């Protein structure tokens, strides 16, 4: 089974072709990603309209490159998958409409993929992980702990009540005058800093639930930075080190709670899987290894190119759905918001906040 996947929900324009064999294993035939970082850098964050226009400009070429590299003709595809949300709606419309056009012209089944589901299923492409497993998704837009029980069967065990982890790294970077995107910059500065110079709070520590919160920590960093202004390079390194240390301790605790909830409800997970851009952080990876070892489960982190947004994950999720006969019709709508777990509700007292429950 050969599936083309298209990703345009945020600031990467991506297309890929994957093969799914009858035994459920997968093979990547091509994976083309064009990041829009340069277009957004002057604004210190993703500008939705600039993102949508850039997708329109380059998507055709990216798809052609993915098909060429795979050596596959459109007529040989078993399915065309596009991320139909959640994401910036302009970009989602570009990708989904393009997939519909290809599907119509070639009489190929369409699969409208949830971007979060694609992150969730990636370790089955890279490592053939069996269900059920525990997913830690930490990207610029999402921080979630999810029980992955089967294709289309997800239970959210925890979520952020304010900022996503990547978002918090980006905001700290901006606050301290480091360039965009901020995650890698904060990580690098933290390596040269003293994590103990500032006593930053460890949000949510010890709570029974598995939710995250980072806005209080962010405010604490802002307050310390304000007192020290103008900041010298060592101040910046120390603030980053203190911030990252607090994130690590909080996230380790929250994951411990999530894994406990997982075990109570579904038995021991087959693996702890990390995905999303923040999983590229080496200190976060070390912490994840410790958390997994503590509960005697295997840690699986897909290679960085498949952790951050890409077309292969969309193609693979499309293939997994197609194998179960789950295809979509031409009237499928693009979605800015789309919960992975349809039964998930906002954590108590946070129902009215802007976090993406
Ligand atoms: O998954 P991703 O590529 O895109 C989505 O948000 O969907 O994640 C990007 C996010 C950004 O917020 C970026 O700052 C963060 O992941 N990130 C990192 C690191 N590399 C990327 N955060 C912390 N440390 C890093 N090394
Ligand atoms: Zn993503």
TrEMBL record:
SUPFAM superfamilies documented for this protein: Actin-like ATPase domain
InterPro entries listed in its UniProt record: ATPase_NBD, Gcp-like_dom, KAE1/TsaD, Peptidase_M22_CS, TsaD
GO cellular component: cytoplasm
Keyword list, A-Z: Acyltransferase, Cytoplasm, Iron, Metal-binding, Transferase, tRNA processing
Residues engaged in binding Fe cation: 115, 119, 309
EC number assigned by the record: 2.3.1.234
Single GO MF annotation: iron ion binding
Family: Belongs to the KAE1 / TsaD family.
Annotated protein name in UniProt: tRNA N6-adenosine threonylcarbamoyltransferase
Source organism of this protein record: Rhodopseudomonas palustris (strain ATCC BAA-98 / CGA009)
Lineage of the species this protein comes from: Bacteria, Pseudomonadati, Pseudomonadota, Alphaproteobacteria, Hyphomicrobiales
């Amino acid at each position: 089974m050969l599936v083309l996947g298209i990703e345009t929900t945020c600031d990467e324009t991506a297309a890929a072709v994957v093969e799914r064999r009858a035994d459920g294993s997968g093979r990547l035939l091509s994976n083309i990603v064009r990041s829009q970082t340069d277009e957004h850098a002057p604004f210190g964050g993703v500008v939705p309209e600039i993102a949508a226009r850039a997708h329109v400009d380059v998507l055709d070429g990216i798809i052609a490159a993915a098909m060429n590299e795979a050596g596959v003709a459109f007529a040989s595809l078993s399915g065309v998958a596009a991320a139909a949300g959640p994401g910036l709606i302009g970009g989602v419309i570009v990708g989904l409409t393009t997939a519909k056009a290809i599907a119509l012209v070639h009489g190929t089944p369409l699969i409208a993929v949830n971007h979060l589901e694609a992150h969730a299923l990636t370790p089955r492409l890279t490592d053939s992980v069996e269900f059920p497993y525990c997913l830690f998704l930490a990207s610029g837009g999402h921080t979630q702990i999810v029980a992955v029980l089967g294709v289309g069967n997800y239970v959210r065990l925890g979520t952020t009540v304010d900022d996503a982890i990547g978002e918090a790294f980006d905001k700290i970077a901006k606050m301290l005058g480091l360039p965009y995107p901020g995650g890698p910059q904060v990580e690098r500065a933290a390596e040269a800093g003293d994590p103990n110079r500032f006593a930053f709070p460890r949000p949510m520590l010890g709570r029974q639930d598995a939710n995250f919160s980072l806005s209080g920590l962010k405010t604490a960093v802002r307050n310390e930075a304000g007192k020290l202004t103008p900041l010298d390079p060592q101040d910046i390194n120390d603030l980053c080190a203190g911030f990252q240390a607090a994130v690590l301790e909080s996230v380790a605790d929250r994951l411990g709670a999530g894994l406990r909830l997982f075990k109570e409800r579904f038995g021991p997970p087959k693996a702890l899987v990390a995905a999303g851009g923040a999983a590229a952080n080496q200190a976060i990876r070390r912490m994840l290894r410790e958390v997994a070892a503590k509960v005697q489960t295997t840690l699986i982190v897909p290679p960085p190119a498949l952790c951050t947004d890409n077309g292969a994950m969309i193609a693979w999720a499309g293939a997994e759905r197609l194998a179960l006969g789950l295809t979509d019709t031409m009237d499928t709508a693009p979605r800015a918001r789309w919960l992975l777990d349809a039964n998930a509700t906002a954590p108590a007292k946070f129902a009215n906040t802007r976090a993406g429950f």
